[in-house]
Amino acid sequence: MANLIPTKGNLMAAKRSRALAEDGYELMDKKRNILVRELMTRIDEAKELQKRIDGTFRAAYDALRTAEVALGGCADIAANAPVDESVRLRWRSVMGVEIASVAGDEPDQESLPYSLADTGSALDEAYRRFTEVKKLLAQLAETGTAVYRLAFAIKKSQKRANALQNIVIPGLDADIRHVTEALEEKEREEFVRLKVVKARKTG
């Protein structure tokens, strides 16, 4: 602050602000490092999930083609299957970043959403494979959302840390220097004045 009045009170306030800014920077730096570690873990998870999904999707479509050949088509069976509305979101916080946890009900293998009398084991296999795809997609959605939110929070933390390190702290250092120099100058002037007064009294 260029207009900061050089008083001891202002110097103490500037030093307190400087200490707080330093603490703030250290906290932001720690937060950023923790978020980066979490992000790297999630990115590795996403890569692994993507590989598993690719393989599971291929197996599921192969099973579906086999079922369609065996049954002469599955469109009517699929149309009558109930809509799955069991997916739920739960939230947890990582250093103030809200991350969703995606959960859904496990399908009951005993009560399939189609008649066993009109179908065969090929459709059972296709259903089992697509159930696995659904589970993996929920995990990928959770991980992908976490990656996006963490990356955004890291960028925000980095901006704040940079602002503290490159603008706020140097500005406070300049204020402290300015006030310190002005107070020292005042002290020198006062010392010289007292010397002159003393010399006049003794002379």
Would you kindly provide a written description of the structure presented here, covering whatever features stand out?
With 203 residues, the chain is mainly alpha-helical. It has one domain: Helix Hairpins, CATH 1.10.287.3240. 75% of the residues lie in helices and 7% in strands. Strands 1-2 form a two-stranded antiparallel sheet. The longest helix is centred in the C-terminal third of the chain and has 82 residues. The two termini are 45 Å apart. The mean pLDDT is 85.
Describe the structure using short key phrases.
single chain; 203 residues; mainly alpha; Helix Hairpins; two-stranded antiparallel sheet; 3 helices
Low-confidence segments, given as residue ranges, are none
Here the CATH topology equals: Helix Hairpins
* Overall CATH architecture: Orthogonal Bundle
Strand content: 5-15%
Terminal CA distance reads 45 Å
Short description:
This protein has 203 residues and is mostly helical. Helices cover 75% and strands 7% of the residues. It has a single domain, classed as Helix Hairpins (Orthogonal Bundle).
